[in-house]
Prior knowledge:
Blueprint lengths: L9 H6 L3 H4 L9 H18 L7 H6 L8 H20 L7 E9 L4 H4 L8 E10 L4 E7 L12 H11 L8 E7 L9 E6 L1 H19 L10 H4 L9 H20 L6 H8 L2 H20 L21 H9 L6 H4 L7 H8 L6 H5 L25 H10 L1
Parallel strand pairs: 3-4
Antiparallel strand pairs: 1-2, 2-3, 4-5
Amino acid sequence: MHSKYSPSQLPRIVTCPGSVISTKDVSKETSSYAEEGTMLHAVVEECLTLNEHTIPEATKLNFNIADDESKELVEAVQEVLDWVVSLRLKYADYEDAYEVVEQRVYMSPYIKATGCQMLNDVHGTLDYSFIIPSAGVVYIVDWKFGKGVEVWPDSEQLYAYALGKLASVKFEVKKVFLVIGQPRLYSGELFKIVETTPEALKSWLVSSLVPALNNSMSKHPIYKPTEKACMWCAIKRTCKYRKDMAMQAAADVFKIHAKLPDKTDDEELSDFLFKLPDLKKYISDIELYAMNILRAGRDLPKWKLVAGRSIRKWKDEKEAKLFYANLEEYDAEDLTITKFKSPTQIEKLVGKKNVTEEMLALVVKPPGKPTLVRETDKRPALEFETAEDKFKSYVED
């Protein structure tokens, strides 16, 4: 059954209630990435339902992931299965512990307490939950199979899943663990966990979700374009309110640039930096919108699509290898480049359980490139030594 306010949409709805009406009749875009994610969810569901710790060959064949090109997808699913096994082992002493895979959860049980009838349309499918009644503990887990966008568990989507799950259990819940499993992430933690309580979740329901839902159906709903709210919005490229925000931010660019470097105070610069990510994203979305017009075969005056820089590659690598191997003037070393595998690839080769201290001692993780982010970002701030600090250290030595 389709949900009018699915949990995955709540980060947008809570921030920008007006988007509910604006996107009501707009069809949701799909992509090969979304279809791939749906497929991987189904693979995980089948493995967990069958209580398999690794992907059966029959499952690989059924979902067309048995070839070498699908190795990364198989490894992502295995990361999920390994994490589930570790969670089971953690609570192995609790005889009443159990798990539920792909469960439909509903927010309608909270209508009476809040008076918000729209909660009847807030429901969705919870990927995985692990429940320990005797300990009063519930794990709420959502699998994300995207590579680039890092997702955090303290989000409106998981809050809704958790409240829906809590409404279906019959014991007193003391702790709720919200988990995001993102096994294909390029960097960062693959499985993030935050702890909360039923009281905190119900407080969010009353103070944030219900007011947003009520406002979305009012005569004058609030529109608040932000990077988070607009990311998956169906009208983000044509939204009037986002355009107005971008226009103001663009005007501020020239205004503040005229003051640099002498006439801009730190507070003004700080406030301006908040506007930059949304402006950059808006410009990128407009370019993509224009490209899609041309891809669809429509004309865009004074613009066209051309082929960008291309790198030559073998039409058939096996055939090319065979051809050059048969030429007497070249040997195998002339034709191949060997590269030692990365620490992550080696650890997958030997198996996580077999990684020794000696192996870990061979690995170093250099610092990442400094990135400007908001103060609310989860990552710790970098510390830099100033010229004054260096001079002071030199004098003391």
